[in-house]
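Lecture 7, part B: from sequences to assemblies.

Below are the input chains for today's worked example.
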Amino acid sequence: MTDPQIILAGRVQQALGTAFGQEYASEDPLIRPSQFADYQANVALSLAKRLRRAPREVAQAVVDAMDLTDITVEISGPGFLNMTLGDDWIAAQAVRQLADDRLGVPQSAPKSIVVDYSAPNAAKEMHVGHLRTTIVGDTLARVHEHVGHDVTRQNHLGDWGTPFGMLIEHLIDIGEDEALTRLASGDGNAFYQEARHKFDDDRTFEERSRSRVPQLQGGDPATLRLWREFIEYTKRYFNHVYSVLGVTLTDDHIAGESMYNTMLADVCDELESSGVAQISEGALCVFPPGFTGRDGTPLPLIIRKSDGGYGYATTDLAAIRYRVRDLKADRILYVVGATQSLHFQMVFAAARMAGWLHDDVKAEHVQIGSVLGADGKMFKTRSGASIKLTELLDEAVGRAETVIAERYDDPALRKEIARKVGIGGVKYADLSVSHDSEYVFDFDRMLALTGNTGPYLQYATARIRSIFRRGELDPAGFPGPITLGEPSERALALQLLGFGAVVETVAETSEPHRLCNYLFDLAQSFTSFYESCPVLKAEEPVRTSRLALSALTLRVLVQGLDLLGIEVPERM
Ligand code: ARG
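Predicted structure of the full complex, as structure tokens:
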């Protein structure tokens, strides 16, 4: 374990135990980075009242009882403990990190984690919002896997429900071949719009569509065949988007709404017989406590409509039961738009009432904020139509090629760099803001080489590689030793040691932007180091030490970007 904050916390807690009794040994030492030292601990202030002693006295007692090997501690102000790590200690930890395949990322006791993400609708459109749930969800799946959990990716595809009546009729009208080709090429949005218009304007089409729905739900073979084809061809498009994006989702992870169809009746029966659900105005509803409408009346979660049909909530309840009972999930992450917050709160509450979501299982809605256009409204094309995602990604790659990759003559190399930079830029933009905030989709910003962007971090890795290339050296050939002379060397090494704790925090909080911020700070620390410390031109043993620090920075950046699902070009 290389993280300095954790090591210091241990030291302070041990001292608390020795000074005030073991009941204080698990007190949170309240450690923060400090302006005046590496870290400060504020626990003396918080404990003083309980101990009925002056905070500075408490602080002194802690210092007296503390193991001060490799650290110096000073008491400042009302009783802050300012702690500074010894240079040799930092250097030795950095060498250990360099020798560690996991770069200091601890291995957790494995839990079973279901990540529900991406989940576009075959019946509607895949929009930039789905791009964001896909990208954020994929990172969370990668991070959990990396810290040692068993991850089940589930793509809760919108592949079932009443709109399919209308879509199947439209498919028949325009001819299967033509329809399927269009769906596979990502024309699903336009296809949906056409069907919708016909449904609104044409009575006979509307009637045909309506009567198609019970045929689908009742399993009529001809209808099911058309539905399957529809889904199959739409999935081809989704899979294409996934492969362009470089996310880890494949056909194996599809667990769409249709999968739960056969469980819905049973889910309703179980809820009704256990008294969790009641009939209200003909519909079967759960009224989870604490959810009321504006007028104060209890809000229903409708699980069977008065016409006998099931809805989105029923499917989600079936999914929760399946995930806990069959997949043995310890934790379920729903990476879904923030607008569905009420839905998930009510579904979780109902699942708790049913006993499916018990105390040992955590279900969390990882709320995803909307992606906006420059006008502050939902992101659309100028004509107001929603954007084809493949076109958007193509444009990112094309722009990256002009902005960044134009200095490479070799067309294959240029394409490769442009692809990694363009896609990496789009992904990083989704990941670097906190997942629940909205942000404005802006190509210029996401592809900029400066600032907290994907290309900036990719460039940082390429620059470190170029140091080794110029020296005709292999980064793997520098295991240390590390000595820390300049302040910027020390700051870089200290920053590197924090990697493991950040990855753990992302796993705990489901907040990938914390890893982005860390990597951005790290790249900046490297820049300061590189500006003030010559590397290749330094004398030995400093040269070897600086090369080791550079190699470690490269590995942490590449590993961190890999957890974000971002590829790095060898040169840029
Ligand atoms: N298909 C839904 C949508 O586009 C998202 C599904 C999210 N997952 C879930 N279990 N409800 O809004």
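Note for the exam: The longest strand covers residues 331-337. Keep this in mind when comparing with the next example.
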